[in-house]
From TrEMBL:
Reactions catalysed: L-threonyl-[protein] + ATP = O-phospho-L-threonyl-[protein] + ADP + H(+); L-seryl-[protein] + ATP = O-phospho-L-seryl-[protein] + ADP + H(+)
SUPFAM superfamilies linked: Protein kinase-like (PK-like)
Protein name: mitogen-activated protein kinase
Top-level taxon in the UniProt lineage: Eukaryota
Enzyme class: transferase
Gene encoding the protein: LOC113719139
Keyword flag Disulfide bond: no
Keywords: ATP-binding, Kinase, Nucleotide-binding, Phosphoprotein, Serine/threonine-protein kinase, Transferase
């Protein structure tokens, strides 16, 4: 029985619905039947069809194993394939997140300055940890940042990430850089240098933050030249000193011949924003990478006064170059398959021990349950988007928090009754409400709702803890509102603790 428990883990998960499809596979929401925990399972098919794509997958699962941080998405498990030498698909179990930052920005037009500050703090905290490991993400954008209803963010998609080592040939290191243009640092757009720094990720974070404030991308370039034009339209023509340091002759000539542009004040580009926020943003998107601040320096900025806590901003040791020795040699399909199999064994301690002891693991096929699991995936994937599901789909939220479930327009009474039952269950699990306030406190807040003086004599709008954790757009029209019972306080406390106590510090800033 222990053998089948170890290698038959596919039976441990019950797939509920397909929640996304992309070029690298299908993602389904599932439940761990042993713990009741909700997870996301990513099915990646034909992994070894292209060695370059298989290497990207290897790189990502390795980095996510090595980078353990509350602001980075976690791999909880990878299912053991039935045969070491012949497997083609892999199933990776992640923690389940509700949406991504792109969706949050697109559908919430009333996010508060408190939301922006809290979001940026989490991203910089993650980036400090990543960079301390000598890793560059290289593809930071809103779609690669997952989000939950409690405003928790987690960085994901490390497929383009690289670990930097002192003796790594930079030409090899950067030849495959294909990150999304809108969030790409100018030195990458123009191939200014042969060697880059963590400042490329800082630029991306700055662009993402500006997009939060604006509600739209800051530099939506149509091509590389247009991208550089948009950047210089806002930041002005680079200084002669900065241009002189550019190694690429063509890029240096282009910038030297560019007409003189005067910088546009960020307060003009993003009106009504917190002056401290704009001052920090200016340092995040400096044209010259040497002028950009590090993630650690950004966390110490006055903008995060009252929120930042260096004890909750960990660093880590640089990743050993031996972990990525495969980057230095040409790999065959069998090589990558063996390396991925070795990574999978990290989630199967008994099998890993046998592997390290040299026990032959290729003489028979393990009853992994993968085939049965694939059939479940194929069935749901085949009906993805066609409305054929076992239960009415509850993932109809249009904004980040999900305490209400939108009512379907056309459905029979029995289905509606069943949906309302699921809605009540969902609300009981996720509803967050402010604690009851006395009439005296309400009158006091009303009198002081416009501005609150901070210790540094700078005035800010007042936002309650409820406002920080939830956008007011969650109470959308045409939605069923169900109030939860006495467990609200416990659930709220659990959510606050679940993000490392950061959310408790946010309201204190505006107290």
């Amino acid at each position: 029985m222990e053998f089948f428990t170890e290698y038959g883990e596919a039976n441990q998960y019950e797939i509920q619905e397909v929640v996304g499809k992309g070029s690298y596979g299908v993602v389904a929401a599932a439940v761990d039947t042993h713990t009741g925990e909700k997870v996301a399972i990513k099915k990646i098919t034909d992994v070894f069809e292209h060695v370059s794509e298989a290497t990207r997958i290897l790189r990502e699962i390795k980095l996510l194993r090595l980078l353990r941080h509350p602001d980075i998405v976690e791999i909880k498990h990878i299912m053991l394939p039935p045969c070491r030498r012949e497997f083609k698909d892999i199933f990776v179990v992640f923690e389940l997140m509700e949406t991504d930052l792109h969706h949050v920005i697109k559908t919430n037009d009333d996010l508060t300055p408190g939301h922006f500050q809290f979001f940026l703090y989490q991203l910089l905290r993650a980036l400090k940890y990543i960079h301390s490991a000598n890793v560059f993400h290289r593809d930071l954008k809103p779609k690669n940042i997952l989000a939950n209803a409690d405003c928790k963010l987690k960085i994901c998609d490390f497929g383009l990430a690289r670990a930097s080592f002192g003796d790594t040939p930079s030409a090899v290191f950067w030849t495959d850089y294909v990150a999304t243009r809108w969030y790409r640092a100018p030195e990458l757009c123009g191939s200014f240098f042969s060697k880059y720094t963590p400042a490329i990720d800082i630029w991306s974070i700055g662009c993402i933050y500006a997009e939060m404030l604006l509600g739209k991308p800051l530099f939506p370039g149509k091509n590389v030249v247009h991208q550089l034009d948009l950047i210089t339209d806002l930041l002005g023509t680079p200084a002669a000193e900065s241009i002189a340091r550019i190694k690429n002759d063509k890029a240096r000539r282009y910038l030297s011949s560019m007409r003189k542009k005067t910088p546009v004040p960020l307060s003009q580009k993003i009106p009504n924003a917190d002056p401290l926020a704009l001052k920090l943003l200016e340092r995040l998107i400096a044209f010259d990478p040497r002028d950009r601040i590090s993630a650690e320096e950004a966390l110490a900025d006055p903008y995060f006064y009252g929120l930042a806590n260096v004890e909750e901003e960990p660093s880590t040791h640089p990743i050993s170059k031996f972990e990525f020795a495969f980057e230095r040699r040409k790999l065959s399909k069998d090589d990558v398959r063996e390396l991925i199999y070795r990574e999978i064994l990290e989630y199967h301690p008994q099998m890993l021990q046998e592997y390290l002891l040299g026990v032959d693991q290729t003489s028979f096929m393990y009853p992994s349950g993968i085939d049965q699991f694939k059939r479940q995936f194929d069935h749901l994937e085949g009906h993805f988007g066609k409305g054929m599901r076992r239960l009415p789909l509850l993932r109809r939220y249009a904004s980040l928090p999900r305490e209400r479930v939108c009512a379907p327009i056309d459905e029979d009474p029995d289905q509606k009754e069943e949906l309302e039952k699921h809605a009540m269950d969902a609300v009981a699990r996720t509803c967050l409400q402010s604690p009851p306030r006395s009439e005296e406190k309400k009158e006091s807040e009303s009198a002081n709702s416009s501005m609150v003086a901070l210790p540094n004599c700078r005035s800010r709008p007042c936002y309650s803890a409820r406002c920080i954790l939830r956008s007011s757009s969650i109470s959308a029209s045409k939605c069923i509102e169900v109030k939860s019972g006495g467990c609200e306080d416990a659930l709220s406390k659990q959510r606050m603790n679940g993000i490392g106590g950061l959310s408790e510090k946010v309201p204190a800033l505006y107290a």
